[in-house]
Design goal:
The chain is an alpha+beta fold. Helices cover 41% and strands 22% of the residues. Strands 1-5-4-3-2 form a five-stranded mixed β-sheet. The longest helix is centred in the N-terminal third of the chain and has 31 residues.
């Protein structure tokens, strides 16, 4: 009888370990793929039609926006509309977090001569 109880306990422990490993693998998969579109953790970024129009009007190259997003010298804040303001000394990018990507809402130069308020 004790052998049966022992086998039952061992079976339960093995079952719990298998379930824990399956749950962990699902969690790791969902966490690692939440915002990233590939294995090297590159964040998917999309430009809104408004951002594209403003970048064209303000002569801002998309590569300059990507450089800002990749920079280690950026500053950030939250706008009154709960968007993320990412900026450096020259450029400001307003970002909205979407389901599985970041959307660039608008982009502008930090020029004193222009009214670039987004709040």
């Amino acid at each position: 009888m004790k052998e049966i109880e022992m086998l039952y306990i061992i079976g339960m422990v093995i079952g719990i370990i298998i379930i824990a490993l399956v749950v962990k693998s699902f969690q790791e998969e969902s966490e690692s793929s939440f915002f990233y579109d590939n294995e090297d953790k590159t964040l998917e970024v999309s430009f809104s039609p408004h951002a594209i129009q403003r970048m064209d009007e303000r002569n801002i190259d998309p590569e300059r926006v990507y450089d800002l997003l990749d920079s280690e010298k950026i500053k950030t804040s939250i706008t009154k509309t709960n968007r993320i303001r990412i900026f450096d000394d020259e450029l400001t990018v307003i970002v909205a977090i979407r389901d599985r990507y970041l959307e660039i809402v608008t982009v502008f130069w930090n020029n004193e001569n222009q009214n670039n308020s987004c709040d």
